[in-house]
């Protein structure tokens, strides 16, 4: 399909384990975003990239969270030494960004992370 | 710090009703405002995007308005259908460099047949 693809859809991990979440943005999209959505809440911004450059990581809750987009396409969000409060849905979005003004962000279906 | 509030948190209406969802934001220096729809277990689908210079946008039975100076937006849904049942989220992008969106908590809409 032509949409934003995230994998895995579901991830269960034990507290203390490391996890890696993958996002494939829409082809040609310059900007890529990660959001965290707790149950019953709106998404909260974590970080975003313009091509391979991480321009804003102000939303990352701790240094256990790390994101990369080394070639300006696929991105990985890594969480080290997971804790129960990390349980949430992690949403990835992409947009044309600086290529075209006022373009919407397109979201994937998310990865539901459960920490036991 | 920008804060976005959506009222009501939940709404249940009979099929065919026209309805209004409300969104307010604390900092009027926005670049644009987006309305999204989220179905259970799914990501967000963009419905309408209003640029800061615009007053409203329309798509089919949906109409979104923006009053930037008062920090308010409304989403109007005409002739509601059961398929409109979902959570509706409002998000603003601030002026300046970052493209990040700040979201409200959403309004959960149920349209009963």
Report how far apart the termini of chain A are.
Answer: 33 Å
User: SSE string of chain B, helix = H, strand = E?
Assistant: EEEEEEEEEEE
Largest sheet of chain A: 7 strands, mixed
Low-confidence parts of chain A: none
Rounded mean pLDDT of chain A is 94
Total count of helical runs of at least 4 residues of chain B: 0
Strand count, sense and closure of the main sheet of chain B? 6 strands, mixed
Using CB atoms under 8 Å apart, which protein chain pair has the greatest interface? A-B, 29 and 25 residues
Q: Which structural class best describes the helix and strand composition of chain B?
A: mainly beta
- Work out the strand percent of chain A: over 45%
Supply Rg of chain B: 14 Å
Strand content of chain B: over 45%
Dominant shape of chain B = globular
Oligomer: heterodimer
Characterization of this structure:
- The complex is a heterodimer of chains A (116) and B (113).
- By secondary structure, chain A is mostly beta strands.
- In chain A, 0% of the residues lie in helices and 47% in strands.
- Chain A contains no helices and eleven strands.
- Chain A has strands at 5-7, 10-13, 19-24, 31-37, 44-50, 53-56, 65-68, 75-79, 88-95, 106-107, 111-115.
- In chain A, a hairpin with a 2-residue loop joins strand 5 (44-50) and strand 6.
- With 113 residues, chain B is mainly β.
- Chain B contains no helices and eleven strands.
- Chain B is globular and about 45 Å long.
- The A-B interface holds A 4, 31, 33, 35, 40-45, 48, 50, 55-56, 58-59, 91, 93, 95, 97, 102-110 and B 4, 31-32, 34, 36, 41-46, 49, 51, 89, 91, 97-106.
